[in-house]
Amino acid sequence: MKLMQKRGVRQALASLGAVAALLGGTLVATQSAAAWSYSSTVYVKGTAGCSNSGGIQHIHAEGSLDGTKFVSDSDTSGTPRYQIKFTNVRSGRVPSGGGWAWITVNCTSMGGYHQSWVEMYRPDWGDTITKNF
Predict the structure, then answer these.
(1) Which of 36, 59, 122, 130 has the fewest CB atoms inside 10 Å of its own CB, making it the most exposed?
(2) CA nearest to 100, candidates 125, 120, 115
(3) Cβ within 8 Å of residue 61, ≥6 positions away
C-alpha cells in the first residue's frame, strides 16, 4: 500500500511541476507581449492597390499622425506593397485613446493614388497594422 501511495505522490508532484512550468511560460509570454504597449512605434503596411504589369513599381507612401509626417519610398516587383513606420504614438493612446492617421499611397510608375484614414491601435501581438488599398 505504501508503494502505491509513494507512486501516487510522485505522479501528483510531476503533474504539478508540469502545470507550474506551463503557467510560468504563459506568464513570460504575457509579459513580453505587454511590453509592446509602451513602444511609440507602430507600422502600417499592406498592398498599394496599383497594377504592376511587369517591371519595377515605385511606391511613395506618406502618413500623418498628430501633425508629424512619415514618408516611405520603395521599389518593388511583384505585388506592390508599402510600409510606413510611425514613431510618435503616445503611450496610453494605443489602444485605449485610439487615434487616426491619414495615409496616402502613390504608385508613380504604373499610376494609382489612394488615400484613407487608418485607425491607430496596438495590435494584440507585434507592432504592425495592415491596411490594403
Answers:
(1) 130
(2) 120
(3) 48, 71, 72, 73, 74, 82, 83, 84, 103, 104, 105, 106
The closest of 133, 68, 66 to 104, measured between CA atoms, is: 133
Query: How far is it, in rounded angstroms, from Cα 104 to Cα 59?
Result: 10
pTM as predicted: 0.65
Q: What percent of the chain has pLDDT over 90?
A: 27
Confidence class for position 125, pLDDT limits 50, 70, 90: confident
The backbone torsions φ and ψ at residue 31, rounded to the nearest 5 degrees and listed phi first, read -65, -40
Q: Is 98 left (phi over 0), alpha (psi -120 to 50) or beta?
A: left
- Mean pLDDT, to the nearest integer, of 82-103? 75
